[in-house]
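Notes from the 1:1 (GR / supervisor)

We went over the backlog. Supervisor wanted to see one worked example end to end before approving the batch request, so GR pasted a single chain during the call. The sequence is below; no edits were made to it. Supervisor asked that the structure be written out right there so they could see what the output format looks like.
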Amino acid sequence: MQKHLLLGLAGATLLSLASCSKNSSDNASAGAAKLEVRLTDAPGNFSAVVLDVQQVEVHLKNENDPSGWQTLAFTPQAVNVLDYVNGKSALLVNTDFAPGDLKEIRLILGPNSHVVGTDNQRYDLKTPSGQTSGVKLKLDNVTLQANATYQLLLDFDVAKSIVERGNWRAGNDKKERYLLKPVIRLVAQNLQGGLSGTVNPAAARPQVLAIRSSILGPDTVSTFADASGAFQLRGLAAGTYQVQFFPSTTALTGQSAYKNVVVPNVTVTTNQVTSLGVTQLQ
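Structure output shown during the call:
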């Protein structure tokens, strides 16, 4: 079956700072960058909007050089974008990547994209003829650096992207009712801050959560302290965080119980690792 490109933007690509909920990943290969691609949505008047995402690609060279496209590690999947509103996002790609410049990004869609209307009927999404070559999402000044994390968020606007055919009438073939003309806001964030510290006693082995409020909702990154009590969170956006500690073990008989601890107003700065020092859990 022929694949179709996900078309974007109807206007200029917007590049701004934001982030979204994720789990900590501190295992990047030495010298590699970490690249995340996520999809989120602005709600529309449908019961479901499913994108049949087959492939995610980035372009590494000049715009007219077809050899510059590189396919990212991705498992084809159907994504109901209405499941990812109000700060939620679908993680499409989370991979190590060679440092360097990114020029463009695009998604490849399969034939099974569809919507479910408020009438509970399924309608295939059709891509208008003449646009199957796609309009790619351009990236301005995006450079992946070694040992840093870069996040690309595709903010899909359902209300503007799903267009009803002007000549559609009830009783016609339902598969021909809607056209897919995606309007996507590209939100990019260079994630290079970090947090570190130790807990006492180390035997508490707490889960450590760093929570930052953003325009897309709470952004939560987590890890666990190691056997020595040390912890580190990397790939954080700059901002103010609340850091929470939840012991995963119980104290020995006769010892004071371990306690949950919340540390508010922790500032993370780009290109720096903020130290919390020692956090007492007893």
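Supervisor's comment: The longest strand covers residues 48-59.
Batch request approved.
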